[in-house]
């Protein structure tokens, strides 16, 4: 069973392989597992003229070829699947994979994709409400008890799945707006923003909002895994920005130390599509980050202290929450 929870320090690979080569997809995941990465993730963009994977089907294929690595959706677009059906899909996947699932879920920010498939499109306020209902549907059905939920967007009448999950399946939400961040702090096991979408300084302010909402709900904020999607580019000549980690191995590690020290303890890395880049990240960058943070065990963010010496990358100039 996956040990990913709370302030676990971990590193994941977000697959950049769009398909349609299943052997390459599996080889990438097997390689990531062999290198010690904690997670392997797929995104959920089904509409378009570029090749893509349906993530549940593809992750099931990967699960059969791997043994340890946790598999994650980064993140599912809510309109694509009924949350009640998703609850059963997740229970089955988690059981068959030996407890190696993280359900990443978002309200769905790309409305053109859902319109193209004839699916529900919602206003921003409706998106937040529907996401909250969906999490309650998942948790309710996973409880093993009969669930009735007369929601505005999802209505469940004495729904039940058998068997219930053998353990708690983590739900990470990909959220950005104030109401959605408050929902995340109140209900979610994890938060997974994309630093390519919001600048690092903005992500840190959002993190403060998630933790404030958790405290207001009577939760320990440190129980929430704060992951983040981050783009990494190995190029000694490249200039890092507040949305891109770039440079040689030492420069990349220095920037990621700042990311982790800010509270994003589970970087999910884009840009490791080549085997040599995955190996470089795992064998050079990860040890540098762990050594700098003096972390070889689960992270308590209250005790984290990160050096900001050396080159002042944008990750260090952004200020804290």
Automatic annotation (TrEMBL):
InterPro entries assigned: F420-G6PD/mer (IPR050564), Luciferase-like_dom (IPR011251), Luciferase-like_sf (IPR036661)
Enzyme class, UniProt record, top EC level: oxidoreductase
E.C. numbers: 1.-.-.-
Protein species of origin: Kitasatospora phosalacinea
The keyword Nucleus is assigned to this record: no
A Pfam match: Bac_luciferase
Name of the protein in its database record: LLM class flavin-dependent oxidoreductase
Record bears the keyword Oxidoreductase: yes
UniProt lineage: Bacteria, Bacillati, Actinomycetota, Actinomycetes, Kitasatosporales
Domain Luciferase-like as annotated: residue spans: 17-237
């Amino acid at each position: 069973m996956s040990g990913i929870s709370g302030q676990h320090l971990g590193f994941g690979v977000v697959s950049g392989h769009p398909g349609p080569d299943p052997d390459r997809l599996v080889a990438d995941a097997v390689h990531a597992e062999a290198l010690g990465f904690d997670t392997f993730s797929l995104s959920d963009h089904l509409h378009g003229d570029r090749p893509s994977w349906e993530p549940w089907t593809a992750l099931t294929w990967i699960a059969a070829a791997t043994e340890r690595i946790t598999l994650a959706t980064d993140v599912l677009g809510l309109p694509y699947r009924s949350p009640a059906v998703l609850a059963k899909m997740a229970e089955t996947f988690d059981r068959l994979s030996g407890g190696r699932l993280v359900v990443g879920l978002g309200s769905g920010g790309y409305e053109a994709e859902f319109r193209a498939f004839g699916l529900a499109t919602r206003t921003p306020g409706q998106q937040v409400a529907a996401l909250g209902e969906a999490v309650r549907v998942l948790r309710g059905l996973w409880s093993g008890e009969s669930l009735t939920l007369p929601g505005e967007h999802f209505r469940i009448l004495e729904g039940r799945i058998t068997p219930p999950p053998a353990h708690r399946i983590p739900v990470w939400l990909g959220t950005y707006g104030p109401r959605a961040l408050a929902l995340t702090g109140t209900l979610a096991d994890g938060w997974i923003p994309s630093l390519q979408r919001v600048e690092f300084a903005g992500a840190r302010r959002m993190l403060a909002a998630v933790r404030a909402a958790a405290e207001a709900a009577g939760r320990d904020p440190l129980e929430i895994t704060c992951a983040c999607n981050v783009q990494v580019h190995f190029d000694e000549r490249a200039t890092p920005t507040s949305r891109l980690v770039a440079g040689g191995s030492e420069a990349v590690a220095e920037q990621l130390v700042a990311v982790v020290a800010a509270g994003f303890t589970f970087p999910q890395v884009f840009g490791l599509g080549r085997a040599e880049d995955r190996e470089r990240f795992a064998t050079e960058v990860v040890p540098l980050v762990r050594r700098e943070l003096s972390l070889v065990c689960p992270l308590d963010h209250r005790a984290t202290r990160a050096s900001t010496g050396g080159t002042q990358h944008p990750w260090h100039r952004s200020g804290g929450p």
